[in-house]
Specification:
Part of the signal recognition particle protein translocation system, which is composed of SRP and FtsY. It is found in: Cytoplasm. Keywords: Cytoplasm, GTP-binding, Hydrolase, Nucleotide-binding, Ribonucleoprotein, RNA-binding, Signal recognition particle. The protein has about 300 residues and is α/β, with parallel strands linked by helices. Strands 3-2-4-1-5-6-7-8 form an eight-stranded mixed beta sheet, with helices on both faces. Strand 2, helix 6 and strand 3 form a beta-alpha-beta unit. The chain is elongated and about 70 Å long. The two termini are about 10 Å apart. The structure holds guanosine-5'-diphosphate. The site of guanosine-5'-diphosphate has 18 residues, from helix 5. Guanosine-5'-diphosphate binds next to helix 5.
Amino acid sequence: MFQNLSERLESAFKNLKGEARISELNIANTVKDIRRALIDADVNYKIAKEFTDKVKDKALGEKVLNAISPGQLMVKIVQDELAELMGGKEAEFSITGNPAVILIAGLQGSGKTTFTGKLANYLKTKKGKSPLVVAADIYRPAAIDQLTVLAEQIGVDIYAERDNNDAVAIAQNAIKEAKAKNKNVVIIDTAGRLAVDEVMMTEVANIKAAVGPTEILFVVDSMTGQDAVNTAKAFNERLDFSGVVLTKLDGDTRGGAALSIQYTVNKPIKFVSSGEKMETLDVFYPERMAQRILG
Ligand code: GDP
């Protein structure tokens, strides 16, 4: 992931090789190349333009110290701005409450169920929590089977009601069950559809209203680029979610979703997921990601 962007940025900085100081003239090509690299990574034009305008202003406003070349200075500025674009500091993830309730939403196939398992595993092994995962997808019995397999694999309890077609009631019953069994985190995996639709949105919004979640995580496939950003917008308008989970970072993603989501919906990416193994869940650190891009 980001490989193409990394290479393109590296080559953009080469324009400055041999320059003694930064001037409007000699950074023009670098700035243009950075903008093109971002657009080709599936960042929308407006975000790319604003980004490079900022980089340019910063570069022209800074005195080049003897110890650092214009090329190095540009790398530093771009790295800082990339981190800022992705939210700056690491976002908080709240698991307070008894139980803490975490609602998982997103399109079908985005990786919700896989993430639900990974998050439960993370909270169990890294945070010493005792999670209960809930299959609240009332349309696909296979979704219940899938979560059952994952729960067994990681050794956490699952709550499901195969004959109940009321997702809100299932979520409420799950919380009662969690209290009865002393589970301190409830993770509710909701139904998704292939595109944003009213039935799905109403259902998730109703679950939200009924259970008052501690966190609402919107899960999105990073391979879908600008579509990911548009879907995020639609979900945020209805759900006002608290964070984003980017999945499938192990795939051939260009990186546009990671770079644009925070800017577009003003919500932080909290986790990134790469791969189907239950152990491959990472907390998202914008600064580290920016560093990785400029590797
Ligand atoms: P849901 O419909 O949103 O619950 O999505 P699933 O969790 O069932 O995932 C859809 C497909 O993507 C499944 O085949 C998963 O194994 C796969 N998947 C989920 N997360 C990842 C990931 O981070 N990387 C890769 N490569 N595949 C993933």
